[in-house]
Amino acid sequence: xxxxxxxxxxxxxxxxxxxxxxxxxxxxxxxxxxxxxxxxxxxxxxxxxxxxxxxxxxxxxxxxxxxxxxxxxxxxxxxxxxxxxxxxxxxxxxxxxxxxxxxxxxxxxxxxxxxxxxxxxxxxxxxxxxxxxxxxxxxxxxxxxxxxxxxxxxxxxxx
Length: 159
Hints:
The protein is mostly helical. The protein has two domains: 7-51 and 122-158, no CATH class; 60-121, no CATH class. The chain has ten helices and two strands, in the order ααααααββαααα. It has helices at 7-13, 15-24, 27-44, 52-56, 63-72, 77-84, 117-121, 129-132, 134-141, 145-158, and strands at 85-87, 93-95. A two-stranded antiparallel sheet has the order 1-2.
């Protein structure tokens, strides 16, 4: 599937259809299709051309992430947390600012090899999270072309 330059608008228009699909569609059918749809989506999408995730959202920084990244940056965990993170309304550590302070002008991540587990897993297009966390998936569909692509393909499968 070639990505339309109007994918964000199309995603916004299809939110109700995506929600219906994720809530009422065949979970088994969708889960079985995800690995291949994920591969297809990422064969056509280069994250470095986009970077919307890092520009607009923050991953959760869990304690193992904080420990690992602080060590790589040669910082004390407390100093790392104070400099880069804040607690959100769900009591999760997230970055203080957008875009992510580790995102470069070229959309490369300066801590890529040690990035948080949320970043490694994003956009969850090969996981059951895509189906289980409907609100998150709908939000991601408007910012991530891979999520949009996978959802569009799932809609076609359901027909």
